[in-house]
Amino acid sequence: MSKMRFFALQELASRYPVNVPYPSERLSDYYGDHVFNRKKMQEYLPQEAYKAVIDAMEKGTPINAEMADMIANGMKSWAKTLHVTHYTHWFQPLTDGTAEKHDNFIELDKNGDVIERFSGKLLVQQEPDASSFPSGGIRNTFEARGYTAWDVSSPAFVVDKTLCIPTIFISYTGEALDYKTPLLKALAAVDKAATAVCQMFDKNIKRVGANLGWEQEFFLVDIALYNARPDLCLTGRTLMGHSSAKDQQLDDHYFGSIPPRVTAFMKELELECYRLGIPVKTRHNEVAPNQFELAPIYEDVNLANDHNQLLMDLMKRIANRHNFTVLLHEKPFKGINGSGKHNNWSLCTDTGINLFAPANTPEGNMLFLTFVVNVLMMVYKNQDLLRASISSAGNSHRLGANEAPPAILSIFLGKHLSHMLDEIVDRLDNAELTAEEKRQLQLGIGRIPDIIQDSTDRNRTSPFAFTGNRFEFRAAGASANCAAAMIAINAGMAHQLHEFKTEVDHWMRRGLDQERALYKVLRNLIIASKNICFEGDGYSEEWKKEAEKRGLTNVHSVPEAIMKFNDPQSRAVLLGEKIFNENELNSRIEVELEKFTKKVQIESRVLGDLAINHIVPIAVIYENRLMKNLHYMKELFGEEEYQKMGTDRKELVREIQHRILSIKKEVKDMTEARKTANHLDNDIDKAFSYSKHVCPYLEVIRDHIDHLELEIDDEIWPLPKYRELLFTQ
To answer: Can you name the residues that pair with 148 across neighbouring β-strands?
Structure first.
């Protein structure tokens, strides 16, 4: 066994759970105590300042300079009770992580003495250096100016000794350089469009908000073993490694007893989440060994997204204290389940109606059906936009495998709701309904709660599934920012609802009453979106063929999927709903292509280095041992006996030599393919070149190395193996 591997396993043997006691038996005693929430605002702000914040949150009313100063002073006073020394504008650049620049509260007065001050100006806006953040050509590197601006709708919080203020991040020219800015625009768009449709049924509805419940999957690996795997450290996934004899075949890890060290980690993580107002509720073992999941209670999309970004950062920090490393890559281990981040999405009115929940009256269920049918049409028309929103180098290894949805977008409704939609199509035609037909239809609609209660199964192969009172978008990757998918879904829904309302109004101007106009448009949408509905096995080859017949797209290439942002329908949604302007949309495409290229480039370099400097030398050492053994056999037993006894060893030497030569050749060819791609000036061409000409080498080289892992003496294999990475806690 190599020294690195030996010491990693030796260090692992000394691990024990780190016990972190809860500060109180009652969760309510400390829940949200690190958040400047409404309760804290009421305590630390003057009444007029508190009202200004609430009006800004609920009505979008601007906060003037005087109120901003009051709010900043109250926020600082609260933060000082937690011994805070610094503040930061916390934002979400296009790096898939978060960013922060910490400033102390200290300033110098006119006498040169130090004072602590936090003004409204510093709260509302700052000017961080934007030169090194991805911008997709919106600004040049030498043009460093960018602005962060306070997002009033997401409360400030304290991490360690720093006051964190959630903000948007924009360029000097006002164009978005982050995820939060377009997300807020998409939420505003769906609010406006959905409210207009809701008011056709109930004039009391004044606002519609989008809710999100994410499910975060992740792996835990002991930090000693992680540090002994350069590929994990540098790329987040294992670029080589033969499957363990036992992995997830028995499904014995799924919902099993959580190991003590993992429980200790989760307890501390939950404690920090609760203090930050993140309502994590569920924790459990996932299917793959050493894979786990956390899920919270539903929240407003913007806040839920902030909480998920914060959670991922917390997980990494807290895992270190328990001698773990968190792996958020979508496919860190080949041959077993990867990690996703299911986005459970719903729309709710300010009157308390969940628009995706069946009601107990025909009128309420007409509202429910209106929104469900519009979701069908939204997904059908925007399948490529949704596919683009979850495309990444990491997620490409996961989509379509037997633990994740396929790359083909489809919707699962459940047989009873699907049957109800079929009934609507069958009963309605261009003629007026008779009183009896209308009564029968209304009775059918009124039965919706009964027929779908406990009868809407969950189809884990469906990328977009109705699960009783929400839709679950299962295709998002574990490391992704939820905002990417939520921008596409909410913007697409806003666009669809606008078109729906326009069509209903058209038929009402033609003389139909509202009920008849609604039925007519809904019937047409059900028929038009029929091809996106699928109740069967999304993994099957039959579905791929059927989907092709239906005209559904099946995009596997990441660059090809990213370019779907620029399709006419995607542009109609993203530009038409003013989520992006032309420059911002083009920049997003460029940033995503560049991220894909760089990630594959890094993987290629890491694999080449490990193959030539770690694996090949070990293979040569073992090959020499075998040849030396063959030489001694010949001397000891003579030529005739040697020919009989040495056959297997000679074949093994030939096999190892073949693998060595193949690895060296493939690494050389991969390097040349990478150089060719790097010399391309166009980012689109470069990304497609990496996808087509560099990515295949990663699998070819890996295959040779994985065979060598089975053939070479375990004593000298340099890297921790899958059985060690996955079955040690």
So the answer is: 126, 169
